[in-house]
């Protein structure tokens, strides 16, 4: 895997994330730009790239398993009444141009292409900001516009018949350690209690790091969280949880997720205080 055209994000002069725009990946992984490694201000990595358990997990980015039948997530496709199935239906997200790119963030245009046709055009805006001497924020907004002549819809394994698997959208593959991370929201704790549920914010706490995710718009906060801790550490915001998400020609789906990246193990009060400051800023 040879990455090309990388951008390095910095907070207070320290590198905290590398953005790869044109990775050389096999089609089965649904090639797409990603952030990896992402680190705390002390330098602890909090992402993984193509881990053995899920080689199609690529750090931080946007991945969708079903755009009108095309797989922009990678790996197998869940087929109703059949289960996970290897299909030749993988799409790719292609970097077009940076409208702005500097150490504090970037604005990017991408084309979502499958079977030789462009389905979606994306505008992605990413910004990094220092919060404290031990925490910073990653502000990630994406807008997906249907550029075809007909309606499209976004689905997930859940909408295709697999209960509890409504992944697809913003996704963060976190660092895997010897023990599973803790996870909690303002009023619930543990994978079973928070997975598939809505919450203003959700914290994932590892051995010496904490990630606090928050929907930063009313529409984003309506999306339930997809959470894994026992099998692997990953958090996403679900675009298609209970039913497929339609997009008419020329219409756009817009979501914004703000993530606090902190050194240390934050408790509920500390996580809440930081994420409130991050979202309000």
Characterization of this structure:
The protein is mainly β and 281 residues long. It has helices at residues 191-194, 218-221, 268-280; strands spanning 6-11, 14-20, 34-38, 60-67, 70-72, 77-79, 83-85, 92-102, 105-114, 117-132, 135-146, 152-155, 169-173, 182-184, 201-205, 209-215, 225-228, 234-237, 245-247, 252-263. It is built from three helices and 20 strands. The strands form four sheets. Strands 8-9-10-11-20-16-15-14 form an eight-stranded antiparallel sheet. Strands 4, 5, 12, 13, 17, 18 and 19 form a seven-stranded antiparallel sheet that branches. A hairpin with a 3-residue loop joins strand 15 (201-205) and strand 16 (209-215).
How are the SSEs placed, and which strands pair?
Elements: E1 6-11, E2 14-20, E3 34-38, E4 60-67, E5 70-72, E6 77-79, E7 83-85, E8 92-102, E9 105-114, E10 117-132, E11 135-146, E12 152-155, E13 169-173, E14 182-184, H1 191-194, E15 201-205, E16 209-215, H2 218-221, E17 225-228, E18 234-237, E19 245-247, E20 252-263, H3 268-280
Antiparallel strand pairs: 1-2, 2-3, 4-5, 4-12, 4-13, 6-7, 8-9, 9-10, 10-11, 11-20, 12-19, 13-18, 14-15, 15-16, 16-20, 17-18
Number of strands: 20
Mean pLDDT over the full residue set? 96
Q: Sketch the topology as an H/E string, one letter per element.
A: EEEEEEEEEEEEEEHEEHEEEEH
Outline: globular
Please give the largest β-sheet. 8 strands, antiparallel
């Amino acid at each position: 895997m040879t990455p090309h055209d990388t951008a390095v994000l910095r907070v207070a002069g320290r590198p905290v994330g590398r953005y790869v725009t044109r990775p050389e990946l096999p089609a089965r992984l649904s090639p797409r730009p990603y952030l990896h490694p992402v680190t705390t201000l002390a330098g602890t990595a909090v992402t993984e790239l193509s881990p053995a358990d899920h080689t199609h997990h690529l750090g931080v980015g946007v991945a969708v398993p079903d755009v009108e039948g095309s797989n922009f997530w990678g790996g197998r496709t869940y087929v109703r009444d059949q289960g996970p199935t290897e299909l030749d239906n993988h799409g790719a997200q292609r970097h077009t141009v940076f409208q702005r790119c500097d150490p504090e963030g970037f604005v990017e245009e991408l084309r979502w292409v499958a079977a030789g046709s462009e389905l979606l055009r994306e505008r992605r805006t990413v910004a990094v900001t220092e919060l404290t001497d031990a925490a910073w924020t990653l502000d990630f907004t994406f807008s997906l516009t249907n550029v075809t002549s007909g309606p499209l819809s976004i689905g997930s394994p859940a909408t295709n018949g697999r209960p509890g698997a409504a992944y697809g959208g913003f996704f963060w593959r976190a660092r895997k350690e010897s023990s599973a991370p803790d996870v909690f929201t303002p009023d619930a704790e543990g994978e079973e209690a928070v997975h598939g549920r809505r919450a203003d914010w959700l914290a994932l706490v590892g051995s010496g790091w904490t990630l606090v995710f928050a929907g930063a718009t009313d529409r984003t906060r309506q999306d339930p969280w997809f959470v894994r801790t026992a099998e692997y550490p990953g958090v996403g915001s679900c675009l298609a949880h209970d039913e497929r998400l339609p997009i008419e020609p020329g219409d756009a789906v817009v979501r914004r997720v703000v993530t606090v990246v902190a050194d240390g193990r934050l408790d509920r009060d500390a996580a809440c205080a930081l994420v409130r400051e991050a979202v309000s800023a």
